[in-house]
Amino acid sequence: MDFKPPPQMSLAGNVSDNWRIWRQQFEIFMTASEALNKSHRVRIAMLLHCIGPDCVNNFDFGETGSTKYDVILAKFKTQFSGLKRSVFSRYEFWKYTKPADTPFAQYLNTLQNLARPCSFMETDEMIRDKIVFPA
């Protein structure tokens, strides 16, 4: 059975979250397609093909040029996990307005999701302030 690979990873927005979500999708794809039993070389090729040229071209393979799948995966994690864009995330959080006819619970859930990558010291207080002072 053939399984469709995940879409290429996006470098737009919160790259850290994009990486986390993309990696989950990729791991599901690798498991479903029984690719985890293949050689390191084949798994690395699948990873590089699926993640897309934008990520590959921005990736530093280092001097070692490792041939171990887990090492390459860990290098991607290190590179992308550090790319949190809290200023942009905060901008998105503060500019968001409650759409008309949206239930409060859905609005609150959206605010919680928008606040997650913002690195607020007091996330609950920021959400409260956004609700009280919607801008």
Automatic annotation (TrEMBL):
<protein>
    <recommendedName>
        <fullName>Retrotransposon gag domain-containing protein</fullName>
    </recommendedName>
</protein>
